[in-house]
Amino acid sequence: MANQNTPNTNPNPGHDPTDSANVADRYDEFHETLATPLPNQAYRDRIETPTVHPTALELTIRVLAVLLSAVIAVRLMFGLFNAGRTTPVVNLVYTGTDWIVQPFQSLFGTPNSGTGGYFDWPAVAAILVVGIFAGLLVGLIRPRPEDE
Q1: What would the pLDDT profile of 96-148 be if each residue is shown by its tens digit?
Q2: Distance between CA 88 and CA 78 in Å, rounded?
Q3: Contacts of 33 (CB under 8 A, 6+ apart)
């Protein structure tokens, strides 16, 4: 008579548990589940959601933000290398980015454009704000997947 304290662990009660083919099948199944565990429902929901492709407006906002940040970064480089504002290209970059950098000059002060180069902290702040603003705007525009 079988011991009543041990549960029946044989998944196939009609088969002999010492059968080598049956043990190999169970081992492979067990081995595969350890190698690739089944993801929980939250993970499956995240990987099974359809991908949302960016809209034309979202791409436009991102491109404009990158271009504006690049021009401000060029302004930052001109300040570091003490490029003269009398040069037409340098003057164009400074006048084209003054509208976005000037609000931050009251916080950080106007950089000293003496004999050496300077680090333009208002330009760095403007790059950060452009990136944050573009990210928030894209987040508002991006369509959300429907909740089920």
Answers
A1: 999 999 999 888 877 666 666 788 899 999 999 999 999 999 999 887 666 44
A2: 13
A3: none
Q: Would you say the C-alpha torsion 15, 19, 22, 28 has a positive or negative sign?
A: positive
Same domain for 89 and 43, yes or no, is: no
The domain total for the chain is 2
33-61 burial string, b = 16+ CB within 10 Å, else e?
A: eeeeeeeeeeeeeeeeeeeeeeeeebeeb
Whether residues 44 and 77 fall in one domain: no
Answer whether residue 8 is part of any domain.
Answer: no
User: What secondary structure, in 3-state letters, does the chain show?
Assistant: CCCCCCCCCCCCCCCCCCCHHHHHHHHHHHHHHHHCCCCCHHHHHHHHCCCCCCCHHHHHHHHHHHHHHHHHHHHHHHHHCCCCCCCHHHHHHHHHHHHHHHHHHHHHCCCCCCCCCCCCHHHHHHHHHHHHHHHHHHHHHCCCCCCC
Q: Is the pTM of this model over 0.90?
A: no
**Dihedral (CA of 103, 109, 113, 117) sign:** negative
